[in-house]
Design brief:
The complex is a heterodimer. Chain A is built from 8 helices and 26 strands. By secondary structure, chain A is of the alpha+beta class. In chain A, a hairpin with a 2-residue loop joins strand 5 and strand 6. Chain B is an alpha+beta fold. Chain B has 2 domains: 73 residues, 2-Layer Sandwich (Alpha-Beta Plaits); 65 residues, 2-Layer Sandwich (Alpha-Beta Plaits). Chain B has a 4-stranded antiparallel β-sheet.
């Protein structure tokens, strides 16, 4: 499709944003605009469509430099509020993972565990400006003789801290049910036996990668809303898959694309990075993430105009199939059905429950829209696209 | 419709009597049993929601239970939702047995209807951000 009726470049759109003239709407608002005016007319009017999602994104964490001590130290073990961070890097760098529980957590010894405090909670406490207890150990060397340090610091006092999430913004995810006869405590929430409930976790029509299903505008260097600040897409995320079953609109019918992202933790906010305690499963971090989609042509606009009725996912059994690694779908449902509150699975009516906040996702898309309209947020032109042509 | 959640304690001498069914038969009340147990000492404890078309009808039913030797109290604790902490994710709605926690469509906000809450405390341990808590209210006379 090279013969587009409308073509715009990143430079042209950024110039309009800088002049405060860019037309920006959210991925929910564009649906009605495209229906009313048609995709070509809508693409000529609208410059940017904003998206948003807010949900637990377990593959998240932060690289933190805790600063040197006297005598010098090369930390080999580091704890933040008793939550261990990976320290196999030099010298006082470490990586604090969102799902790492604190060292004295009873875990699932008394099932289901509560997982009250972990890496995600430390990250939230840091961005909230709270003081964090740091403890580190080392084996000692000639150049770094110190073997043990203890100190309390705030995020402001830490020399560097960056949020580096290897897998965020999953493009679609399973709808979870439990076909066993026992209650199951999963990362998809609590699942009652005999398909007592169905849990799902995406923001549907607002979700970033549903609005650019082939990642035609999202690549290395795409500027995004991340944790309340401006961040960047660095690569595809772990478990990223592009060769998947898709609907006629290009939207994957099950879990597919993912993104790895980066941003300065010091500029982020506890409203958009929230520690999670998932009963019986573990700790995590809910991440607020939004991506602006530049309307380069009417084809891109058509992708952004996708509605909940046209986005589908698979119903997966977390009672037996998922833990055993059995790949099986108990049916396909649209996000419009999931958001309605009930679905039918194998003749049984089941209540549906989200794990992803639509209230917060909408707020992200609105914040991003207003920042772009006020020339506070310029588009980052990708330096590399992940699309395989 | 007047509805209230009550805790009924049946001493061993009345635990064997058919009393709760009389609420329907004699007093035209509806009940929904939320929890029922009989201890090793043969004492019964039942938590139920009783609803009536009028407050007066409800009172008559409660007075009848008391006459029969049933000890009636209301839940001492109440659940609250901290609106500052809630992210409106919806995880609690999957475990709430009385739909006191529910999703308002199409906005998808998570709302809490205290009147429907049976104080089962499932939401407290399920809420991933720990927005749900328990507080003790002053025990007020039921009737």
């Amino acid at each position: 499709m090279n013969d587009h009726k409308i073509t715009k470049t990143y430079e042209q759109i950024n110039e309009k944003i800088a002049r405060g003239e860019a037309v920006v709407v959210t991925a929910e608002e564009i649906i009605g605009i495209a229906k009313e005016h048609g995709i070509v007319e809508a693409a000529s009017q609208v410059d940017v469509v904003t998206t948003g999602t807010f949900a637990p994104m377990c593959s998240s964490g932060a690289f933190i430099n805790i600063g040197q001590s006297k005598p010098l130290v090369r930390t080999s073990k580091t704890w933040f509020n008793n939550v261990p961070a990976y320290s196999g890097i030099a010298a006082v760098d470490c990586y604090l993972g969102a799902t790492q529980p604190c060292d004295d957590d009873p875990l699932n010894k008394r099932h289901p565990g509560e997982f009250n405090y972990g890496g995600g909670h430390v990250i939230q406490d840091l961005v909230a400006g709270k003081t964090v207890e740091i403890r580190a150990e080392s084996y000692g060397t000639d150049c770094y003789p110190n073997r043990r340090i203890e100190k309390t610091m705030t995020l402001k006092e830490l020399p560097n801290a960056m949020l580096v999430n290897p897998r965020n913004a999953y493009q679609n995810y399973n709808c979870a049910v439990n076909r066993s006869d026992r209650i199951k405590y999963t990362y998809m929430g609590t699942l009652k036996p005999g398909m007592g409930n169905a849990n799902y976790s995406t923001s549907g029509a607002l979700s970033p990668l549903f609005n650019d299903p082939y990642l035609k505008t999202i690549g290395l260097g795409t500027r995004i809303f991340l944790g309340g600040a401006q961040g960047y897409v660095t690569w595809t995320g772990t478990q990223h898959k592009s060769a998947v079953d898709r609907g006629l609109n290009g939207v994957p019918l099950g879990p597919a694309g993912t993104l790895s992202v980066i941003g300065d933790l010091k500029q982020m906010s506890p409203d958009w990075l929230v520690g999670q305690s998932i009963r019986g499963y573990g700790c995590s971090l809910s991440v607020g993430l939004g991506i602006p989609i530049p309307i380069l042509n009417e084809e891109i606009l058509k992708y952004t105009a996708v509605s909940d009725e046209e986005i589908f996912t698979q119903i997966v059994d977390y009672g037996y199939d998922y833990p055993e690694g059995v790949s099986r779908s108990y049916g396909q449902v649209s996000y419009a059905e999931l958001k309605s509150g009930t679905i039918m699975v194998k003749g049984q009516q089941i209540s549906t429950h989200p794990l992803s906040s639509m209230v917060k996702a909408r707020k992200i898309a609105e914040l991003l829209k207003s920042a772009i309209r006020r020339s506070k947020f310029l588009l980052g032109q990708p330096q590399h696209l992940f699309v395989q042509q | 419709m007047y509805a209230k959640i009550v805790i009924l304690k049946f001493p061993p001498e009345v635990a064997q009597k058919a009393l709760v069914c009389q609420l329907v038969k004699k007093y035209d009340l509806l009940f929904n049993i939320l929890s029922a147990k009989i201890s090793s000492r043969k004492e019964g404890v039942m938590v139920m929601e009783i609803s009536s078309t009028s407050r007066a009808g409800f009172k008559k039913g409660i007075a009848f239970l008391k006459e029969q030797g049933v000890r009636v109290s209301s839940p001492e604790h109440q659940i609250f939702k901290d609106e500052e902490i809630c992210t409106h994710c919806g995880a609690c709605t999957a475990v709430c047995p009385t739909q006191a926690l529910y999703i308002q469509r199409p906005g998808m906000e998570v709302l809490f209807d205290k009147e429907k809450c049976s104080v089962c405390e499932m939401c407290i341990v399920t809420c991933p951000t720990r927005a749900m808590g328990l507080f003790t209210k002053k025990t007020n006379a039921l009737v």
